[in-house]
Amino acid sequence: MLDFQPLTLDIKETVDSYTFKYGENSCQHSFVSSFGLYGKYGDMFCESENFLFTLRSKRYKDGERVYLFPMGNFEDSYGMKNALEKIFDDAHSKNCRVKFETLTERAKNAVTEFFPGKFFIESSRGYAEYVYKTEKLINFPGKELARKRQYVNKFLRDFGDRLQVQKICPEHFEKIKIFQSEWLAFKNSIDKDPEHQAQLKIEDEEINIALENFNTLGLSGIILLIDGNVKGYFLGSPLSENCFNDIVNKADRNIQGIYHVLVREFLKNCCAGYEYINRQEDLGVAGLRKIKTEYKPDFLINKFILREIGEH
Q1: Bridge partner list, 52
Q2: How many Å apart are CA 220 and CA 24, to the nearest integer?
Q3: What percent of the chain is modeled with pLDDT above 70?
Q4: Is pLDDT at 98 greater than 70 in this prediction?
Q5: Cβ distance 6 to 171 under 8 Å?
Q6: Of 18, 63, 126, 263, most Cβ neighbours within 10 A?
């Protein structure tokens, strides 16, 4: 039986040891994401027989018990099948069906190979994650990204010595919170969609949790200042030895080109040695999808939702 434990900071090292090795560079497979979004997902963890199990305790609905794919050695077929059977046993013992959220294609294929015909499969385009080479978003090379390169160059010409880029430290936290509060108020004033506002509220809570636990979570980031005033910030953390996670970035949209500069400076200052950056999902928001696509991702991490067929 799986003995799921509440999410606490003292298990970060254990969780990281699995996610860094087996998480496939997915932003969903991150202790930092689980910790920051605990209010939304209620992630709980269990380590058993060299596999890490994640239960999304706040996603229970309609007799479904919700899990992420168990993390462990994909090449260990016996161990992987045994881990999946443990999830069935756990769900069925609670008279629930199994639901897997945000499975990668490799994980989806493993489940359906071991248990053919046992799941409804739903492709989840809104949860596909955008992954870019860090070098690309530092230099914006070639014709496709020429306009973004031009925006960066114009921004640097316009602001010159008025611009400061600083790596985030505790003395910046309060300034970031004030900027975030102002950014959120402005965003809500122009976007009245209740669903979008609910998503932004969850994100705002995640940002505050991240700042309150900045060092313990192993975060890094930058702020952009113009004339000494905060005009943008970027927070991230490692997903693996070669991929960084874009947790959140905000900037003053009234300043043309600032987001391109923010991305570039974060990668230059915080991501040395990392080949890729995962810039997360678009959640089906048309404007966000357009922006992420314009940066020309090197690949998407496609995601799937699997629902067990039948009743328990």
Answers
A1: 47, 71
A2: 21
A3: 100
A4: yes
A5: no
A6: 263
CB neighbour burial string for 185-203, b if at least 16 within 10 angstroms, e if fewer: eeeeeeeeeeebeeebeeb
Confidence check: pLDDT of 209 > 80: yes
SS (H, E, C) the chain: CCCCECCCHHHHHHHHHHHHHHCCCCCCCCHHHHHHCHHHHCEEEEEECCEEEEEECCCCECCEEEECCCECCCCCHHHHHHHHHHHHHHHHHCCCEEEEEEEEHHHHHHHHHHCCCCEEEEECHHHCEEEEEHHHHHHCCCCCCHHHHHHHHHHHHHHHHHEEEEECCHHHHHHHHHHHHHHHHHHHHHCCCHHHHHHHHHHHHHHHHHHHCCCCCCCEEEEEEECCEEEEEEEEEECCCCEEEEEEEEECCCCCCHHHHHHHHHHHHHCCCCCEEECCCCCCCHHHHHHHHHCCCCEEECEEEEEECCCC
Distances (CA, A) of 49 to 11, 78, 228, 285: 17, 11, 53, 40
- pLDDT at res. 141: 96
The encoded tokens of residue 197 equal 């506002």
pLDDT at 312: 62
Given a contact cutoff of 8 angstroms between Cβ atoms, the answer to whether 213 and 9 are in contact is: yes
Looking at residue 1, what is its pLDDT? 80
Which residues make Cβ contacts (< 8 Å) with residue 267, sequence separation at least 6? 134, 137, 138, 277
Residue 233 CA to residue 235 CA, distance in Å, equals 7
Summarize pLDDT for 137-168 with one digit per residue, the tens: 999 999 999 999 999 999 999 999 999 999 99
